Amino acid sequence: xxxxxxxxxxxxxxxxxxxxxxxxxxxxxxxxxxxxxxxxxxxxxxxxxxxxxxxxxxxxxxxxxxxxxxxxxxxxxxxxxxxxxxxxxxxxxxxxxxxxxxxxxxxxxxxxxxxxxxxxxxxxxxxxxxxxxxxxxxxxxxxxxxxxxxxxxxxxxxxxxxxxxxxxxxxxxxxxxxxxxxxxxxxxxxxxxxxx
Length: 196
What we know:
Blueprint (H helix, E strand, L loop, with lengths): L7 H6 E6 L2 H8 L1 H13 L2 E2 H5 L7 H11 L4 E3 L4 E4 L2 E4 L5 E5 L2 E5 L6 H15 L5 E7 L3 H7 L13 H9 L8 E6 L4 E2 L3
Parallel strand pairs: 2-10, 7-8, 8-9
Antiparallel strand pairs: 1-9, 3-6, 4-5, 6-7
């Protein structure tokens, strides 16, 4: 494991898991993207106002991370993929990547239904096998945040069937990402800021 490549400030604030030397690949082969990821994580706060705000298409928390990376040249990206068998093209659609830059794919799963993890990991697996990406990153929430949500009266909006670390880890450990190097960050209560 190469988690010691991450700054101490990140290791103290996030729950972090790594597969197939993702940290080393990012730091050494994609230093600009590595720095962008470190920067967005270092500057992130989990504001009470963002938790209690009514949801919409995308949460304020996901928007905050997306917009930070978009301002650094990352983009939402879909790929047109197909397999040719005996001169017959068969579409193999992939889902849009939330944030992509130079072969680094990053997904934010704050409060979706947990099958979204299957979609993300399958996407990483396929795009890695096709040579379109070199590493996948997922930012989600620590499962322990449920206690915070309950205390804020928002426990019903989050739950065991939504995206959180305990739903993600078994999927990766079960091979959901195939051979793709993966780095996962869990947003923890140590990032919580009482802004209201």
